[in-house]
Every structure is written in C-alpha cells, then in structure tokens.
Amino acid sequence: SSEQLQEITTLRNAIKPSDISSLIYTSGTTGTPKGAMLSHGNFVENVKVCLQQIPVIDETETFLSFLPLSHVFERTATYHVCCAQGCKIAFAQSLELLAKNMGEVRPTVMNCVPRLLEKIHDKAIKSGTAEGGFKAKIFLWALETGQAYRREKEAGKSPGIVLSAKKAIAEKLVFSKIKEKTGGRLKFMISGGAALPKNVGEFFGNLGIKILEGFGLTETSPVMSVTEYHRQVYGTVGRVIPGIEIGIQNVETKEMISIQTHETFNENFECAEGEIIVRGHCVMQGYFNKPAETAEAIDRNDWFHTGDIGRFYKGNLQITDRLKNMIVNAYGKNVYPTPVENVYLKSLKIDQVFLIGDKREYLTAFIVPNKENLQEAFKLSESFFEKPEVFIEEKEIADWITQDINKLSGELAKFERIKNFKIKRNPFSMEEGEITPTMKPKRKVIEKKYVESINQMYSVSVDAD
C-alpha cells in the first residue's frame, strides 16, 4: 500500500551512509577478535568501485558461493555484488560437495581462497600425469602450449597460426576436460583472503581460466586492490581501486616509501617493500568499544595500518606476508613464512606447511601430507588416519616427504630451508581453532598447542648452515 511505501521511504531516508551497517569480528590470526564497525557507505562504495574495476559482471551471471557469509570477502564480493547487479547466487551444499555442485550449477563466476585453487591445481596435475606414458606427455605438452600462448597474448602480441593451432588441439584434448569439471561456463574466479602462489595463478592462466586476485581486510570493507580483467600480473593482487590511497611505509623508520592511487597507476612502477597502509572510503569506522586498539590501527592522519608487508610491482600491489608472521632467526635473518611455504607446497605430496624458527638457529616445519597421494603410495586404509597419535612416525613416509623437501630446498636461500619436520596425521582444522575461515594458520595457537613437538625438533642435531 502507499502507506507502507511511505514508511519504507521514511526509514530508508533515516539511514545515513555513515551509519553502522555491520559489526564483523576479525578472525584474527593473532590476539582476541575485534569488531570492525563497517558503515553502509563502506560497503556501497566498495561494491561500486569494484564493479568499475571489473566491468564484466552483469545480471546474467550465476555465482556459486561456498565461503561463509560471515566473512567480509564473501559478503561483499558475492552477496553485495550480486545484489547490486541482480545476479543469481547458488549456495554450495558443503565444501565436500563443491565439485558436484559446480557441475550442477555451472557457475560463471566464483569467489574462492588460494587453498581451493591449490587443491584443484594439484588434482589436475596428478590426474594428468598419473598414468605416465603417452597420456602424461600430451598433458605436459598441452600445459607448455598453453603457457606459450598465454605469454604471447600477455605481451600484447598475436600468437601465430602454428601456436594457435596447437592451442586449439590442447584445448580439445586437455583443457576442455578440466573446464568441464567446473561446469564449463566459468568466465573467471576471484581469489582473496590470502596471496595466491604465482605458479598456481599461471597454471590456471595456461588453461585459459582467468583468476582475478583481490586484496583487503575485514577493516577495509574489504577490497583495497583487485586485478583488472584485461591485465594479469601473476603474483600480484591487482590495481588500487578508485577513491582510496595506498601507501608503503618503511617498517623501521616510518618514512613513506610511496603513495599510489587508481589515477597514478603506471604499469612500469616498482618500489621497495614496507608496511601497506590505506586511507579512504574503504577504511572502517573503528573497532567496537575499543578506542585504544582503534587508535593503534588508524593513525592521526587517517591511515589504517594493515600489518601486511608488500610493495608495488608493475604498477600493481604485491603482498609478501603479515608483519606479525615474520620469523627472525637466531642470527638476525628475517624470513617471511608464506613465500617459503609456497615453495614447498609445489610438491604434490604436501597439502599444508607450517614454518617454525623464530629466535632459533634454523627452520623446522609441521607438514600435512596429501592424504590421497599418501594412501596410494603406501596402501593405507582410513584407520591409519584415525590413530590417536598426532604425528606420523613411520620412517618410510618421512623419507618419501624428504625427497621433495630436499629437491625444493634448492629454490631457497640456505637460511630459508627446512632442516627438520614432523608429519601431521590430519590437517589443521577450523574446529580446533587452528585456522581462520579463509584457511590461514593461527600461528600463536599452533605454536602454543604443539610446543613440546616443536622443542623435540630442535633437540636433535642438524646441519644449520
């Protein structure tokens, strides 16, 4: 009725953009969760500028959602974006049934976290090369062809007739089979919540599946930067969104290394590493009932300090790791765990790596093996994973993992190499409070919980370089 419409209009007009829309508690990989006060303006502006930066999302899209809507990335990048554009959202039944749901829903866009993309990558590589022989050769040839084709396109060149013909064959024999598993309609995926390893992004690019990376925090509503649809720089999290400033600040001296905006973008720009700070419409109002913590996070010049280390590379933002995650070894060498862990995650035998070594002489790690590959290699039944012992002690399994650890260590500086490790029987879990909703490890929780096992790894003598 007209009265009800009048009432709705009155209520709508009473809401100001600066009013709080939502309190989202940060999952916090360290410390106590804090309630980020996000306004209607925070969310609306964030969606508006993201759609400007990725102008290819329209009302014909079907999104498949599987991340929790209590997490700001899924809420903004799926729920709010779909509300703004009038797209369809299908909700996955569970993480276990996600692959089945992809086939049923046939999404055109999906938001995901790097862990999922790493798993798809590992599965595809494994099934493509498992049988060996001619089939594996074709698979590897197709990937090489896809890579050559992608590089030509990204360099702004036109792939020749021969390369285009090879790419068409690779598409028919290999890529189409992988794409079929996603439902066959996927235009692109948006990856957020953590930095995506460069090799994984390139793998999807070689298949012709676009992965757009975004970066932000709960406190920044969340998007601060996102890959442009037409310009991929693997290993980066895209261009600064319109309407905000991103600064890189020297961690020790607090001197500003660089400030970039959407308008100052220059595809050749690079700068030194520092803490990423941000100012503008995306920054929260503060932490709910926590004035001291708010003052610590947002300085007097309105810069929000993200606690992330990064730099600008080819005009895009590039993330190294969380400042709090930094390991300083006994010799004063700084090691950021995420880039090191990502090197070891290239192994198909390994699912999770948790690096340890703060104030220690060398690095050690907890390693979670890939369950399927471990079961296959050692003919293990389900009961093996139900044993009460947290760690796997069998020497032949340790030797099997060691082969890949030694091989991949060659890609790292000596002080970044794992010198000892323990194999965890089952993955770190959300139920146990060991990882966040976007599958990042809670370092303090894990280190405290397994302190005895960590000390054991340092009680044996190893060559510490």
Any idea of the CATH topology of the largest domain?
Rossmann fold
Spatial order of the strands forming the largest sheet: 4-3-5-6-7-8-9
Gyration radius over CA: 23 Å
- Overall SS class: alpha+beta
What overall geometry do the principal axes of the alpha carbons give? globular
CATH first level of the largest domain: Alpha Beta
- The total strand number stands at 21
Distance between the termini: 78 Å
The share of residues in extended strands comes to 15-25%
Can you tag this structure with a few keywords?
Rossmann fold, GMP Synthetase, Chain A, domain 3, 3 domains, 5-stranded antiparallel sheet
Characterize the structure shown:
With 465 residues, the protein is α+β, with helices and mostly antiparallel strands. 37% of the residues lie in helices and 22% in strands. The protein is built from 14 helices and 21 strands. The protein has helices at residues 2-14, 40-53, 72-85, 98-105, 114-129, 133-154, 161-180, 198-207, 291-297, 337-344, 371-378, 395-409, 443-449, 451-459, and strands spanning 20-25, 35-39, 62-65, 88-91, 109-112, 188-191, 210-216, 223-226, 239-240, 244-249, 256-260, 274-280, 286-287, 304-313, 316-322, 327-328, 334-335, 350-356, 363-369, 391-392, 418-424. Strand 7 (210-216) and strand 8 (223-226) form a beta hairpin. The longest helix has 22 residues, at 133-154. It is globular. The mean pLDDT is 94.
Write the layout of secondary structure elements.
Elements (H helix, E strand, L loop, with lengths): L1 H13 L5 E6 L9 E5 H14 L8 E4 L6 H14 L2 E4 L6 H8 L3 E4 L1 H16 L3 H22 L6 H20 L7 E4 L6 H10 L2 E7 L6 E4 L12 E2 L3 E6 L6 E5 L13 E7 L5 E2 L3 H7 L6 E10 L2 E7 L4 E2 L5 E2 L1 H8 L5 E7 L6 E7 L1 H8 L12 E2 L2 H15 L8 E7 L18 H7 L1 H9 L6
Parallel strand pairs: 3-4, 3-5, 5-6, 6-7, 19-21
Antiparallel strand pairs: 1-2, 2-13, 7-8, 8-9, 10-11, 10-12, 12-14, 14-15, 16-17, 18-19, 20-21
